Amino acid sequence: MSIEIKRSIKPVDYNDAIDQLEKRLEKVINKKANELIWFLEHKTIFTAGTSFNENDIIDKSIKIIKTSRGGKITNHSPGQLICYFVIDLTKRKKDIRKFIISIENSIIDTLKEFKIKSISDRKNIGIWVNHNKENKKIAAIGIKVRKWIAYHGFSININNNLKNFDKIIPCGLKDRKVIKLEQILNVNYRSFLDVLEKKLIKNLSVSNYF
């Protein structure tokens, strides 16, 4: 089976998205559906992964949705590109580490196409760019694996409102700042998405794992 590519034009409700993701997960586990890469946006929302700490919430008035993904607390809002996936690792030697590297490289390679240098960080998962002599996070990654099927995904800040991150300690990192693509380079959102899609398809190709 091939990977289905899905793009949602309007923002998708977070709970609806996760419900759809988990239904696809069950179908992929039971070999009843294709793998999935889904590009979308959410309205403003704060989500917490399995390792989040209550102390990471600065503004106690915000509503937090707890999720099953890995990682800590983050914000989603319009202008931030979300990529969810359901990928079968049994086709990819059950290599979780290489899968994560494939995701990281897809984002790094996409940014490189727009002349932006970025790096991954083993200690602080995500993608970072050096801006004004300071490493800042441009992409967050949160993955869960069930029965060797990897799901959830990553987010990339394109032109979203970064003030929302002031209400939390993003990903539990106190002294690290976030950045959006718009602050570095004026890039068309659609063009960026087109390149990212191609990089993901290439890097997640089963042939890359053998």
Protein described:
The protein is α/β, with parallel strands linked by helices. It has a single domain (3-205), classed as Bira Bifunctional Protein, Domain 2 (BirA Bifunctional Protein, domain 2, 2-Layer Sandwich). 25% of the residues lie in helices and 30% in strands. It has 4 helices and 11 strands, in the order E-H-E-E-E-E-E-H-E-E-E-E-E-H-H. The chain has helices at residues 14-29, 96-113, 181-184, 189-203, and strands at residues 3-7, 35-40, 45-48, 64-66, 73-76, 80-88, 118-120, 127-131, 134-146, 149-157, 177-178. Strands 1, 2, 6, 7, 8, 9, 10 and 11 form an 8-stranded mixed β-sheet that branches. Helix 1 links the parallel strand 1 (3-7) and strand 2. Helix 2 (96-113) packs antiparallel against helix 4. The chain is globular and about 45 Å long. The two termini are 17 Å apart. The mean pLDDT is 93.
- What structural class should be given to the helix and strand makeup? alpha/beta
Mean pLDDT: 93
String of helices and strands: EHEEEEEHEEEEEHH
- CATH homologous superfamily assignment: Bira Bifunctional Protein, Domain 2
CATH topology: BirA Bifunctional Protein, domain 2
| CATH A-level architecture | 2-Layer Sandwich
**Can you identify the CATH class?**
Alpha Beta
